[in-house]
Each structure stands twice: as structure tokens, then as C-alpha cells.
């Protein structure tokens, strides 16, 4: 039996961190990402493969990451997009940048996208369909 491969965004805290820890405890392969790789050093120390990744990066960057992960691990069984942006203000009180950042992370960062997108790269090497979930 092959070891499941997880790709988890926003693994520095919350659901992403907990899912990564649970998968590692079960002996699974985990690729954990966060905007700041220093914030997931504890996961690297626990056995995860870690990298800095912003889910709002341009599509070419995201696809390159997906291609690299598939090349290295052969597949991704579980794609967990735990990235989310909470706008802590009423919409009329928020700045345009705050609104843009929330929308960009919560909508475009959840990316299922076109055939050339990262999700297509995941699915091409995956035993199971990708799972994207923004909390």
C-alpha cells in the first residue's frame, strides 16, 4: 500500500496546521505550505516537506509548484486549501485593499480553475480528486 500524499496550504495555523499534524502522526507524506516558511518550521521538524507559498500568486507560479510536487511525489491524494482571509470590519469600513485581499484569497486562492491550472496538475497525478476548502 502506498503512503497518502497531502498538499496543504496555510499550514501555519488553524485547520491547515491540525490536518498536517494529524496526517504526519499517521505516517503520511505531507507537503505543507504557508506564506512564511518560518511559521511552518515545526512541521518540517515533524517530518513534513515545507515551502513558502502564497495562494494568491500568479497562475504560472502555482502551476510550477504543482508540477514540482507531482514530479517529486508522483501524485497528490489530498489537496487541502485551508487558506482564508477574515475581513475584520464592516464592508463600508474596510479599505479597498482589505476588500481586494479578502476576495483574492477566499475566491481566487481556492482555485479550481481551467485545464492549465494547478488543480489540473494535481488531478493528473492523483488517485483521488483534489479537495479545496476555504474556511
Automatic annotation (TrEMBL):
Region (Disordered) location: 108-135
Chain coiled-coil ranges: none
InterPro entries named in the record: NAD(P)-bd_dom_sf, SDR_fam, SDR_oxidoreductase
Gene3D superfamilies: NAD(P)-binding Rossmann-like Domain (3.40.50.720)
Domain of life (superkingdom): Eukaryota
Assigned protein family: Belongs to the short-chain dehydrogenases/reductases (SDR) family.
Keyword entries, A-Z: Oxidoreductase
MF GO annotations: oxidoreductase activity
Protein name per its UniProtKB record: Uncharacterized protein
Biased composition (Low complexity): 118-135
